[in-house]
Amino acid sequence: MTVSCNEGAESVCENPIQSRGRGLAATQGPILRGARTRRPPLGTWVFIAIVHVIASSVGIQDAHAVELVGSWTGETNFPGNGFNYTPTAGCDRVAMIFITAEGGTDPVANINQVTLGGQTLTAIQSVDGIVAGSAGSNHNLTWLGYLNDTEIGSMSGNALSITWDQLPDTGIHVQGATYQGVDQTTPIADSASNTNASASTIQAGNVTVGANDLLVYVSSSGNNGATHTAPSGYTEQLEQGGDFSDVSVQRDATTSSTENPTATWSTTQRLGIISAVLNAGAGLALANHSAGQESDAFTESGGETDAELFAFQLTPTGGNQTVTQLIFRLTGISGLADGDWAGVEIIEDTDSNGAIGGGESTAVGGAGVVVQASGTITFSTSFTVTATTSYILRADFASLTDKDTVTISLVSGDITTAGCESGSTTSVTHREGCAYVESMQTWTASLADTWQTQALSGSPYNVPASAVVEVVVRNDSSDSQRSG
Questions:
Q1: Residue 290's pLDDT is what?
Q2: CB under 8 Å to 85, separation ≥6 — which residues?
Q3: How far apart are CA 329 and CA 148, in angstroms?
Q4: pLDDT in tens, 293-337
């Protein structure tokens, strides 16, 4: 932010203590521009910056209906080092295992069974694994499989075990990852695979991606120094080298599409690829309201009626979803008591314009119960979400006093449905009155009729870019003062 107080411009320089509402608006980064001295003598100028911090918010990126939880992890010396993989916590999960191997055996390398924690994985595309190359010469195997949530819950330990019909004689690489929000009846909506004995690019073939589904592909190259480049709209998860190379990749979007991604390797070699579409299960996706989050609803009026406190959006996946409980979290509470809250309700914003209009009166979830000791507002009456719907939390406050403050947030883990909840929102802070912080910076003007600057972004001031800064400038030598 840049603020300035020109000693010659008296109409701009108001005393901030007497007229705090006329502070200078912040722009850009936090820099305090000092007074330009129009007359000697030079002296020590004392700058008092009074900062009005505007209501804060913290944004979190929305989650996908099907999403990676945790990250891909792997091992290039298997079974020498072993591979223990514990699926990440989540709901409606699949644990995916990706295996690549190289050998020169006759017959070619061939998988019989793969288990994780004693549970047998379901193979995608091929139980044996797909092979690029020929028996009796160098060839590379690619295999992909999964456990569903029930099988994950039945695991005993976390060790990966591979039983081979034909063990490869060069090396074995493995990778693992967990995804949530996946349909448990049909986890894989579509898949494809392909091999090529000599190429630098490869495609598995077209696959159909439904709304909220997520496409993952894995690929291997017979070259130990090959590097992979993901196509536009895809992100590499884990790339491994060694005796050969392997990579896991996922699509960035979860929109409906027909996809046939190209795995591009830096050298021509034996290549394999498997694509799998993770089928979105029943659930509820939480997101920011399309019109954005509410602003500070405490307007320094001493009380509020129908104050709009929080805006959000819910989208069902896999059919209608019934919410049995929804909890808002309250933090940074100051000055408020449970009894200050009244008429706490969630209203459907049917036109999704970010404000409750005269014709919008449908309340869901019942009456909100505020318990500040636990930092919660709880809604426990069931309601059904049949399509993407916008909502606004509102309440009455009969009395508000200066510096009454509360920050409200909502996360998917605090919404209870029969399916899997995902996503997040932006929190918002409401504060009655102004948050002023006085800081002093002193320096001696070195040249008359010049500007001097002072940064306020760092310690000890830490003035945020969203603040309004008011400045008092005093010349000790002439016993004069200006402000603005």
A1: 96
A2: 73, 95, 97, 116, 158, 160, 176
A3: 32
A4: 999 999 999 999 999 999 999 999 878 999 999 999 999 999 999
The partner residues of 363 in beta bridges, in order of sequence, read: 347
Contacts of 220 (CB under 8 A, 6+ apart): 100, 132, 140, 141, 142, 173, 244, 245, 246, 247, 271, 272, 273
User: Contact, 147 vs 182, CB < 8 A?
Assistant: no
Query: For 261-270, what is the mean pLDDT?
Result: 97
Task: Give yes or no for a contact between 48 and 469, defined as CB atoms under 8 angstroms apart.
Answer: no
Rounded to an integer, what distance in angstroms lies between the CA atom of residue 210 and that of residue 204? 18
Q: How far, in Å, CA of 197 to CA of 302, rounded?
A: 76
- The pLDDT-based confidence of 217 (bands split at 50, 70, 90) is very high
% of the chain exceeding 70 in pLDDT = 77
Q: What are the tokens at 339? A: 């009894």
Are the beta carbons of 403 and 435 closer than 8 angstroms? yes
Q: Closest Cα to residue 463, out of 59, 50, 57?
A: 50
**CB-CB contact of 145 with 178 (8 Å):** no
Nearest residue to 291 via CA among 310, 316, 317: 310
Q: Tell me: cis bond preceding 41? Omega within 30 of 0 counts.
A: yes
Backbone φ/ψ region at 80: left (φ over 0), alpha (ψ -120 to 50), beta = alpha
- For the residues 218-231, what does the mean pLDDT come to? 95
Q: How confident is the model at residue 464 (pLDDT cuts 50, 70, 90)?
A: low
CA angle centred on 86, ends 153 and 182, rounded to 5° = 60
pLDDT above 80 (res 273): yes
Residue type, 6: N
Query: What distances in angstroms separate CA 148 from CA 122, 124, 129, 263, 404, one per listed residue?
Result: 9, 13, 20, 27, 48
Q: Residue 448 region, left (φ>0) first, then alpha (ψ -120 to 50), else beta?
A: beta
Q: How do beta strands 389-397 and 262-278 pair?
A: unpaired
Determine the distance from the C-alpha atom of residue 96 to the mean position of all C-alpha atoms in its chain, rounded to a whole number: 22
For residue 351, how many other CB atoms are within 10 A of its CB? 13
On whether the CB atoms of residues 81 and 119 are closer than 8 A, the answer is no
Pairwise CA distance, residues 290 & 352, whole Å: 7
What's the pLDDT at 211? 87
